[in-house]
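Our consortium's second objective concerns turning raw sequence data into structural hypotheses that experimental partners can test. To show how far this objective has progressed, the report includes one record in full. It was chosen at random from the queue rather than selected for favorable results. The single chain below, 102 residues long, was entered without modification.
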Amino acid sequence: MIRVILASILLLAGMFCIAVSVLGLFRFNYVLNRMHAASIADTMGLLLCVLGLMLLALDFFHVLRLGLAVIFLWMASPVCSHIIAKTEILTNTKIDERIGRK
């Protein structure tokens, strides 16, 4: 019973973190600001949701698979975000005005 309640709290916290991140995606106009908002859901929201699912898992194999999925996503997500940000900086001609450089 306690395990289910704790898992529900973790899942709700993860969903809240993801919902706030989605709100940030709609609120911000600039792509780098949107990427920052999306990375919040990627790290914290994913971790909280998967921890909740790990508590509900009945088998060690399922817990291991969920843990490996989190590790893979935490390794792949920063690389993809960096590539997108680097492309934006290299291709945007008005980047100096956006970030405050003269």
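The partners drew two points from this record. Residues 2-99 form one domain. The two ends are 59 Å apart (CA to CA). Both points have been shared with the crystallography group to help prioritize constructs.
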